[in-house]
């Protein structure tokens, strides 16, 4: 398989669409190969079934233009950063060979989201070790980034991706999960917004983030490392 440029590794089918669907569309449109690795099938969800969610995930993948979508089939509502889980995830990272990996923020109300952030970071490192007992040749992603969408902690993003032109298609990918989101006002890390629909709540959050870089809609991300800029004279985003 040709290596991926960007791979979202998330706890459940529908998480990638919510936290970074617009950014995956941006990458796809500039010619980058994108993919999603769902760590569980979402079998503990209160609505729908794993089989239905798999069909919805396939529909969403087509809307996002993904090159690949895989599922690690770890345990929903019991996702843990264990040696066995790290071997499974590292093996999939070796197979898909992404340059950049997107995953959850370090905190979250769903325990699987917190576990995923730790599991993905550790697995990305271990996948590069020659003698680590995962299948495939060693591969270590160049970058691991954490999505901050819908987080309430006062964490300033390292960078924001402009998804203004992709917003409607992101919402269409989210809407593919009708079993989870049809008629709802909250989802994942998205809390209710005073009677706003889920779509309106997503747009409200993205608009707030977009204002940080002076655009209509944005998705926020955080990295442990400082990012390099080309020069002071080329810095974007107006101070005033």
Q: What do you see in this structure?
A:
A 7-stranded mixed β-sheet has the order 3-2-1-4-5-7-6, sandwiched between helices. It has 7 helices and 7 strands; from the N terminus they run E-H-E-H-E-H-E-H-E-E-H-H-H-E. It has a single domain (6-234), classed as Rossmann fold, CATH 3.40.50.10320. It is an alpha/beta fold and 240 residues long. Helix 1 crosses helix 5 and helix 2 (50-64) packs antiparallel against helix 5 (167-175). The protein has helices at residues 15-29, 50-64, 83-96, 111-126, 167-175, 178-181, 198-212; strands spanning 6-10, 34-40, 68-74, 100-103, 143-147, 159-162, 218-222.
Based on CA atoms alone, the radius of gyration comes out at 17 Å
CATH homologous superfamily annotation: LmbE-like
Biggest sheet, open or closed, and with what strands and sense? 7 strands, mixed
The N- and C-terminal alpha carbons lie at a distance of 46 Å
* SS-derived structural category: alpha/beta
